[in-house]
Design a protein that fits this description.
Blueprint lengths: L1 H11 L2 H12 L2 E2 L2 E2 L11 H4 L12 H6 L13 H12 L14 H7 L3 H16 L1 H10 L1 H8 L3 H7 L1 H4 L6 E4 L6 H4 L10 E5 L15 H15 L6 E7 L5 H4 L14 H18 L4 E4 L4 H11 L5 E3 H20 L12 E4 L3 H18 L3 H5 L2 E5 L2 E2 L7 H7 L3 H4 L11 H8 L3 E4 L9 H6 L9 E4 L11 H7 L5 E4 L6 E3 L2 E3 L2 E2 L6 H11 L6 H13 L3 H5 L10 H18 L7 H8 L2 H11 L21
Parallel strand pairs: 3-5, 4-5, 4-6, 6-7, 8-9, 8-11, 11-12, 12-13, 13-16
Antiparallel strand pairs: 1-2, 9-10, 14-15
Length: 634
């Protein structure tokens, strides 16, 4: 109706009337002369953006952004009011029936992505609540964590990232672009929180299994920090989501007139690393105690950035180390489910399908655990692995092995000596090797087909361990129903995407989701609260072992390899305490003396201390503090 009236009115008004209307309503021209105005405000930075009178959205010109302390608080794109009006009117004039979304509109799309329209509706409700009342927002997430985690994180966060420019209403987090190079050190002071405990940063180049989403990658940083707050007890005023915009190689984004990021090809080489270097130095300048978590960077950069910063900054890469720690915990859980000690992992043959950053982290972390905890040599531990990429099994006869080694750290150590196995596909490898563990990190849906799964059921004594870890649901290597059906219900299965329970031969089987949310909130909490200075391999391994300590008999009876039923904050507290203990065992100098003293009183005392430092979403009395009250009396 609104759009119809608008069209009708324009049809009957003359161009002269329209011109006169614009002149009067805009107040830019009076008596034929330009009339200039300026608004005076004492607000700056985020206070301006939160003021509905002064906020211009993306229409602040670059000079005004610098003058008002807004650089970094908005995407780099600048839009005119006319462009803003068109976007809003397009939305107003499009009915629900006219709106198309290829991730949720069709039943086939829902099956592939795992995202339902109801998930999207809930996501929009929660986004609106977050803008009005953060305390209630996090209380709802905490009290309904299992249900809400699929809304604020995978799989629905993938939809939010892919639709970021269309969903954008109000900035949340910081935006650094390569065009701001040289200004990062000043930009961080535009963020008005004096204390930041954790920063989650992405360049949007490899978001989940969806590829290059550019500036939309900020959604994954936001989702991770929601879990840090809800699960790890971080204060919402002391976390910072960040996206570093270095361009995009996604043609769909480049051709989208509403896309908010830079449309140049992604920076490469030293020019790229100089931007990330400047960002890390700026964060260390403003918040020297902050933990920095890297998220969803391309494989070719992820390993190099981790190696570049891990010894000089309190940081980690969740795709490499967080995923790996979660997988290691799941493998420990599988050993426990088989009635074996954790050390039994050292005798397993592991087929790892996928050679990206996550697979790199899994291989490195599991091998290191076999060496540090189980007494194998580095060579013996590497022998336990059979690694495949898109061209099949990787042997020392691979023609581009040296090139691959630059992407997959120390891949040459894992390349098989049996050169006749070069290029063998998954089924051929499983039949020949007869592994006990099959892990998928390929992003290729259905690659673990019926033949592969049936071949995994070769051992009459030990059930096969099958981890299909790719996200979203459409990229999962196999479903729990397929794994159970092809192994006569024996498979110990975990997935990266959430699945409901499976009914097999009249028995409900609740397979686990091998999700980083089990690990990173507690791992990050221990490192940030303890001020450990760095995150070592042993600290990451300890987090995995700590998670297994929480698996109950009830979990095992359900076929779960993770403590799915445990209170999420209890999990984070337990892991954080073990991480702090491990840091002290390694002789690291902790910056938090209170944590050291608490640890000196025993493990339970340390947990009590950690509980006391967790933020809890509750309404507290507010007290007004006057600024600079004069001490002079009249």
């Amino acid at each position: 109706m609104l759009c119809h009236l608008r069209t009708t009115r324009r049809a009957v008004e003359t161009s002269a009337m329209l011109e006169r209307s614009r002149m009067i309503s805009s107040k830019t021209v009076v008596d034929g002369k330009n009339r200039l105005h300026a608004e005076i405000t004492k607000s700056k930075g985020r206070d301006v953006l939160n003021d509905p009178v002064f906020n211009k959205g993306l229409a602040f010109p670059s000079t005004e952004r610098d003058r008002m302390g807004l650089r970094g608080l908005l995407p780099s794109v600048v839009r005119s009011m006319k462009e803003q009006e068109k976007i809003v009117m397009d939305e107003l004039c499009s009915s629900w029936s006219e709106r198309k979304d290829d991730m949720i509109d069709k039943d086939e799309a829902i099956l592939k992505s795992g995202i339902h329209k109801e998930d999207v509706r809930r996501k929009e409700v929660l986004m609106g609540l977050h803008e009005r009342n953060e305390t209630l927002y996090y209380k709802i997430i905490m009290d309904n964590f299992l249900e809400m985690s699929r809304i604020i994180y995978t799989p629905t966060v993938g939809w939010a990232c892919a639709r970021y420019s269309g969903l954008y209403k109000k900035p949340r987090g910081m935006f650094f672009s390569w065009k701001d190079k040289g200004e990062f050190a000043s930009m961080v002071f535009n963020w008005d929180s004096e204390k930041v405990d954790v920063v989650v940063v992405t360049d949007g180049s490899r978001v989940l299994g969806l590829g290059d989403l550019g500036i939309g990658g900020l959604g994954i940083s936001i989702g991770k920090l929601d879990l840090y707050i809800a699960a790890g007890g971080f204060h919402p005023r002391r976390v910072l989501p960040v996206v570093i915009d270095v361009g995009t190689d996604n043609p769909k984004l480049r051709n989208d007139p509403n896309y908010m990021g830079l449309v140049n090809p992604r920076l490469q080489g030293w020019e790229y690393y100089e931007v990330i270097d400047e960002f890390m130095e700026a964060v260390a300048l403003r918040w020297p105690k902050a933990l920095v978590q890297f998220e969803d960077f391309q494989t070719k950069h992820a390993i190099k950035l981790l190696q570049r910063y891990k010894n000089n900054f309190l940081m980690f890469n969740d795709d490499i180390q967080g995923t790996a720690a979660t997988v290691l915990a799941g493998l420990y859980g599988a050993m426990k489910l088989q009635g074996k000690p954790l050390s039994a992992l050292a005798s397993q043959k592991i087929v790892l399908v996928g050679a990206g950053s996550a697979a790199t982290g899994v291989a490195l972390t599991v091998r290191k655990a076999m060496v540090l905890r189980m007494g194998l040599t580095m060579e013996e531990a590497a022998e336990r692995f059979y690694i495949l990429d898109k061209d099949g099994l990787i042997s020392k006869d691979r023609s581009n092995l040296s090139e691959l080694d630059r992407i997959f750290y120390k891949l040459k150590d894992y390349a098989r000596k049996e050169t006749d196995m070069e290029g063998l596909q998954v089924l051929e490898v499983v039949k020949r090797v007869k592994p006990g563990i099959l892990i998928g990190l390929t992003g290729v849906g259905g690659i673990f087909n019926e033949d592969v799964l049936t071949a995994m059921n070769h051992d009459p004594v030990n059930p096969p361990v099958i981890f299909a870890l790719s996200n979203p649901t459409s990229h999962t290597e196999c479903t729990p129903e397929e794994a159970l059906r092809c192994t006569n219900g024996r498979a110990i299965y975990a997935s990266g995407s959430p699945f409901t329970g499976v009914l097999y031969n009249g028995k409900a089987v609740y397979t686990s989701q091998c999700n980083n949310r089990f690990i990173f909130p507690g791992l990050g909490l221990g490192a940030a609260l303890g001020q450990t200075g760095k995150l070592s391999s042993l600290m990451i391994n300890k987090a995995s072992e700590a998670l297994v300590e929480l698996i109950t008999e009830e979990d095992l009876s359900r076929g779960a390899v993770f403590p799915d039923l445990a209170d999420v904050r209890s999990v984070s507290c337990h892991l954080a305490a073990r991480v702090i203990e491990q840091a002290m065992e390694e002789g690291l100098e902790l910056g938090n003396e209170e944590a050291v003293r608490a640890a000196g009183k025993g493990f339970e005392a340390l947990k009590v201390y950690i509980w006391g430092k967790m933020w809890y979403p509750s309404y507290r009395p507010l007290v007004y503090k006057m600024d600079n009250v004069s001490s002079e009396c009249s």
